């Protein structure tokens, strides 16, 4: 962080600013990282209250809406006399049979308009299991004509609402998995870097070994070992454990590298000469000086976890329906026939890509901001 | 140098022992065994298997012995006789089933590695030399996008485009007439014609991260004094680049074999399942699902061993290129 980075800020303020303050100032200058921060924050907001952003009950099956294509929203409502107003509406569809192929086709009825109510009442959902609510960001004003913003799947379930619901599982798998890897990584990497010697040697070889293994075959084998009839929460927890078992090695390496370089720093020697205990040296003196770097590494590890969960669930070895995650949703798009008839089933994939890009930008920005030698 | 290689090769032995044991434990993990699955399949077609038959079957497959005995039998069979055991599901020796698939997996991975280097090297150099140009921004944008798109999604999108827009099926590695044909020059040519789609899909994410690495390394080197010296001596810009900074920035390319290879193999398994390629992926998934343990074990063992050998090669190459590594 050079003077250039803080040209706009009063030099006297820079001199007395805390480290976190400096990191935040450097971070704010990184435009892509700021966008990443906002998008990530928005995604996690959805993950906390997916029900509010959903339109229809994500598990509600509707035989008449099977493979219903996305219904476009019209925002400007023109009345018969030519005056117009801002009032979103959509055309309801009716189910017809193609006279030649006998396939079901959804024909929009352009003569009718169904308005969309903001903050309207819809199906009842629970907020983090604490209380339940009925208010949604937007709902169809007629309960009998549900709005399928991103179409419906094979069983007529609303794709949009399912993506919203899936956000909760997919994003939290990343967090929980990274937390578990971090726990392993900090403990083992810390021991390895701080004590050195034989322990370091053994842990280092283990890390190298794990990093040299292709993860997918091992994940597949471990995930195949999970009984299919386990309850959803246990299954979810075990998947995150499996993901973090191979994910901790990278973090342990980062932690060890930091410990090694800090061990010989003068302030650590000074603390030792002062008679500080080992725990105090590690947690009070060393940990704060690389915490920002670790946070950046974690942020970059979350998208990898999200992608891993998506891949596993996509192959049918990760989370099992009726649990809804982005990977489980993408299973619907697994064969060529279903994606050729219903390309909107790809939509969860777009959510994955946006979330991963945002987290990558955020992590990149954090890493640059947290590096005191960055120019 | 020889000492370094010898040390590194010796290190492979304990790693291989651990890998083989791990592969065996992994395939033993699922509750029940193949006989359970087999009985369940029979029960689905209303055939009842009594306890004695089940016990007989277990004894025949050696499933009733303690795990360590089974492991010992398995690993000695592989080492001494090259016998990977019997696939329960296919009722064939595992060796007959895997070699062609493993060879195709190797071909696919190697082709992807070459494609990744071939794409990432020039783009990374360009991106660094023309820093903050439009080309650099485009390269950066695509490398972030490449990192974020899971390879199976890319494969699905390509399949969709091929089916809907161009009206043809993507998938497989051979045309129909060559599917069961013996190997010939025409079949190899056919393979190359089909190989490029999975190669491109797989190369995307590796290329994306390598571009970032190459760009960062080049940027570090470009500011060094020797570059200025070379320029002052009147070297042409292209020769100067190729002669000094690129050579230094190449190190990570060699070391990428070590970390790119596991990713490539992992990615190739998923992509192969989606595109139904005749490589290890689909058969591995199927054998895991049906608890065909010797087949799954052979795949996991071979895939992990190949990856370890890959990282061994990359370590040795790196030591050859960069003397600093050896001295560590």
Automatic annotation (TrEMBL), chain A:
Sorted alphabetically, which SUPFAM superfamilies does this protein's record hold? MetI-like
Gene3D superfamilies hit by this protein: MetI-like
Q: Where are the transmembrane segments?
A: 32-55, 169-195, 207-227, 233-255, 342-362
Subcellular location per the Swiss-Prot or TrEMBL entry: Cell membrane
Q: Where is the ABC transmembrane type-1 domain?
A: 167-363
The way it spans or sits in the membrane comes to: Multi-pass membrane protein
GO CC terms on record? plasma membrane
Q: Please provide the record's keywords in A-Z order.
A: Membrane, Transmembrane, Transmembrane helix, Transport
Q: Which InterPro entries does this UniProt record tie to the protein?
A: MetI-like, MetI-like_sf, OppC_N
Domain of life per record: Bacteria
One biological process term from GO is: transmembrane transport
- The question of whether Cell membrane is a record keyword is answered with no
Q: Which family does it belong to?
A: Belongs to the binding-protein-dependent transport system permease family.
UniProt cross-references to PANTHER family, sorted A to Z = OLIGOPEPTIDE ABC TRANSPORTER, PERMEASE PROTEIN, OPPC IN A BINDING PROTEIN-DEPENDENT TRANSPORT SYSTEM
Its recorded name reads Peptide ABC transporter permease
Source taxonomy? Bacteria, Pseudomonadati, Pseudomonadota, Alphaproteobacteria, Hyphomicrobiales
UniProtKB/TrEMBL annotation, chain B:
**Protein's recorded name:** Peptide ABC transporter permease
Q: Where in the cell is it found?
A: Cell membrane
Residue ranges of the TM segments: 9-29, 103-129, 141-163, 195-214, 248-275, 295-321
Species assigned in the record: Alsobacter metallidurans
Annotated InterPro entries: BPD_transp_1_N (IPR045621), MetI-like (IPR000515), MetI-like_sf (IPR035906)
| Annotated ranges, domain ABC transmembrane type-1 | 102-314
Q: Which GO terms describe its biological process?
A: transmembrane transport
Cell membrane listed as a keyword: yes
**Could you tell me the keywords of this UniProt record?**
Cell membrane, Membrane, Transmembrane, Transmembrane helix, Transport
What kind of membrane protein is this, topologically? Multi-pass membrane protein
Superkingdom of this protein's organism: Bacteria
- List, alphabetically, the GO terms of the cellular component aspect: plasma membrane
By sequence similarity, the record places it as follows:
Belongs to the binding-protein-dependent transport system permease family.
